[in-house]
Amino acid sequence: MMMAVTAIQLAHEVYEAVESWARDEKQQAFAYLFDV
After folding, report:
1. What is the value of pTM for the model shown?
2. Secondary structure letter of residue 34 according to DSSP
3. Number of domains forming the structure of the chain
4. At 20, is the pLDDT very low, low, confident or very high (cuts 50, 70, 90)?
5. Which domain holds residue 29?
6. Percent share of the chain, pLDDT over 90
7. Using N-to-C axis directions, what is the helix angle for 26-35 and 2-22, rounded to 10°?
8. What is the secondary structure of 1-36 as a DSSP string?
9. Of 11, 9, 13, whose CA–CA distance to 34 is shortest?
């Protein structure tokens, strides 16, 4: 169960990074990626 929660959190962080990058918020995108 914990692995599923961790995988979902990881996917969410990557998704947020991609969204930030798409909005040309590169600094925020890197923050999400390095938070992973």
Report:
1. 0.74
2. H
3. 1
4. very high
5. 2-35
6. 75
7. 170
8. -HHHHHHHHHHHHHHHHHHHHHTT-HHHHHHHHHH-
9. 13
